[in-house]
Amino acid sequence: MVPVILHEGHRTGHSMPNLHLDHFKEVRTRPSTSSLSPGREEPKPTMSPLLRLLLCCCSCWPPVLSAITVSRLPGFRGALPFYLETGYATVDEVNDSQLFYYFIKSEGNPEEDPLLLWLSGGPGCSSFSALAFEIGPVQFEIAEYNGSLPTLVLNPYSWTKVSNIIFLDSPIGTGFSFSRSTKGYEVGDVISSKQIYTFLRKWFKDHPRFLSNPLYIAGDSYGGKIVPVVAQEISQGIETGQQPLLNLKGYLIGNPLTGERIDVNSRVPYACQVGIISDELYELTEKNCEGEDYEHPVGAQCVATLEVVAEFFQEIDYTHILAPKCSLTSLKPKAVTGDRRILKENHDKYLIPPPAPALGCKSYAHYLSYYWANNHATKEALHIQKGTVGEWLRCNYELPYKRDIPSNVKYHRKLTSEGYRALVYSGDHDLAIPFLGTKEWIKSLDYFIVDDWRSWHAGGQVAGYTRTYSNNLTFATVKGAGHTAPEYRPNECLAMFKRWINHKPL
């Protein structure tokens, strides 16, 4: 079994109750055993002479991925109207640790359109969350679960309309990624970032036709903490001439964690500004907690004050303050013990099904994804290696993951100073990582304002507000959106992304 540790929400002692960055938690562990390799696939479309020469130069590289094209998905009616590839790449040879990915070609011009690598948050949340709930070409049809396979339909606001996207299950132990050794799961910010770079180099060796496409690293929530670290790994690889040379152009992050105190401390002033707590409680918190880390308070008066604040926070959905508060689609670890953790292969029976939220809750789609991803037909269609993941979890928070990069702000400063583009966007109704805190760490970069605060529009309406800084840094709020902005405002977020990726002002 994978070693189990308690995530920060289980710490004892005085602290502000930990509100995880991803709302609905599946906190069970999974086994890792035996091996089977799916088939390999390497399509060769018509290439320019330059790319043909590049491929010849790369002919000494053996295939490094287990990849296959998926033409149909269970629950989706008919053949897929887009190109989907799934596969694995080994990123730790010693422990045989393999990262699983979904690759979807652009619906526009895949040979020239940008290529995004998407990292979801947690840490421990599958990139399928982004694929099915945020920016991918399919989404779940919301209907009460009746025991049959949930239905997938097209998402009209998919970012794949203008970009190729790799959705990566990282770190190891996330989604369908796995290790054949328990040591392989013991990673953190540093190791996982290096493993993601290793994945990319291997992926491009098997897909050299995409080497000339503009490359962007993207993600939200905790993924937003890792994105600039991965981008820096790539930048250093370019500087030292590591092959293949990647065409990195920049990165984009949504409601991102940095590791700085302001990520959590900004919740209190934000809560006051939107009327969740009183002015008096805000002022008392400022007084009693001066200089304190609100997530790890020390002083007795600060602890007592933050406990009062927490009572208000616990009454609402902190990922979107206007949304109804719904039940979690997860169970506590103690509810899952011993061999009952293991899902029997080749049977559509589930370990302990997550509790069903109300049908009108945003989390109902998350609930449906559990049944879809754990269905045997789905695993067959995605070519999941048998015996590697007993139970798919949307978010696995029991990974032995080390948060060993205290702050990523220095990575932002270095990358943008070197000319890489950056888009930082925030759903303005998110209490988990409020836009107030994001504005503060951006301000700490001390960049000049190029285009001052103004509204940006979509569909003839104000969609948010934006400010552009020197060094190609753009900040934008998404009006009415929560922690995972495209999940709440898909049309507006597609408009924002489409303009930015095409070097147009928001």
TrEMBL record:
InterPro entries: AB_hydrolase_fold, Peptidase_S10, Ser_caboxypep_his_AS. One of its GO terms (biological process) is secondary metabolic process. Pfam families: Peptidase_S10. Keywords: Disulfide bond, Glycoprotein, Signal. Signal peptide: none annotated. Transmembrane segments: none annotated. Belongs to the peptidase S10 family. This is Serine carboxypeptidase-like 17. It comes from Phoenix dactylifera (Date palm). The gene is LOC113462750.
